[in-house]
User: Fold these one by one.
Assistant:
Number 1:
Amino acid sequence: AQSVTQPDIHITVSEGASLELRCNYSYGATPYLFWYVQSPGQGLQLLLKYFSGDTLVQGIKGFEAEFKRSQSSFNLRKPSVHWSDAAEYFCAVGAVDKGNKLVFGAGTILRVKS
Amino acid sequence: DTEVTQTPKHLVMGMTNKKSLKCEQHMGHRAMYWYKQKAKKPPELMFVYSYEKLSINESVPSRFSPECPNSSLLNLHLHALQPEDSALYLCASSPRLRAYEQYFGPGTRLTVT
């Protein structure tokens, strides 16, 4: 069965500092991987996706993620965090054989201190 | 335009009421989804529609009844809900099933009293 682990429930970084959010997945076939961001009381916004090809993918808002098959990881990074990045971040794997079902990690809440 | 709209934004209903949630997209997507998200939890899939036909029902209680009247619209009919059904209900769409990203609406915050 598919599963996604986000080991950090909360992360606090200073504005301007770099950020890395961790994500590990378990999936038997080629994974389709996503990062979404959710502000309080809002829907989810797609930051970036990985289907195949270049393992370093660029997304919106200056985010990038790197797919490492050997480590079953898809970590999200940003070189310089802005206060507006404070939100909850979800990593997800798409189960192609189950109607494109998205299986989400538990989420990581990012706090940005000034 | 990658917009999915949902109405209403907030809904308060009693346990004997009947209400409906509405979702709309005009991106030409042929797959649409309902998710339920409890506080401090990730979204959980409820239903998947593909080409206006129900493709997946994740063992959701019958008090939730989905409907896809056309390729742009997705409804969720609610009847005899329980307080534990209070949650954020999210709609999403994707071009088709199989390895496509999903675009989410802003959600409907449902409170059952």
Number 2:
Amino acid sequence: DAGVTQSPTHLIKTRGQQVTLRCSPKSGHDTVSWYQQALGQGPQFIFQYYEEEERQRGNFPDRFSGHQFPNYSSELNVNALLLGDSALYLCASSPDEGTNYYNEQFFGPGTRLTVL
Amino acid sequence: AQSVTQLGSHVSVSEGALVLLRCNYSSSVPPYLFWYVQYPNQGLQLLLKYTSAATLVKGINGFEAEFKKSETSFHLTKPSAHMSDAAEYFCAVIRGQGNLIFGKGTKLSVKP
């Protein structure tokens, strides 16, 4: 089992550009969540996808959007990049088991995005 | 709204000494609480979780945490630190359907 995988590992963009990050969940998991971790901070929840729909969203602007595919993999898109978007972007997957909201989320290694 | 506060951004201990990392929570409902560890250039790994089954929770790598409702705390401890424990530790609480709210983290250094 490869666990949660993310690509690319590192990315450098300039202000105003657009970026797409990718995530493959752990085998058997159908729920994918995205987090932003700025330097020296804890991860912050961006949004969660289940059954190809955005189920929950954190306090992030519409420049942040996502998608989930039928094979449960997911993409995070960020438009009109700002310097403040520089961060480690973490993807986490979990099985959806009804009301078991305390299911463990398995995290990938992250994508380090640098905006110049 | 649920939140967690980690006291101390950096903790340093000697190898073999007790590790104590502090976390206080705020929640209007019984919380589900987690401790995660992050090694350099890696994602987060779950150490342990509290889901109201037992107040003393044992996790991986010899870590444990005790849920104290009266103190709204969920501190992480390990009796004897090892060099391999050096990492950043995050306390988190669940909000909604699997939305984790993290503290700012505590970086643990272990001196030989």
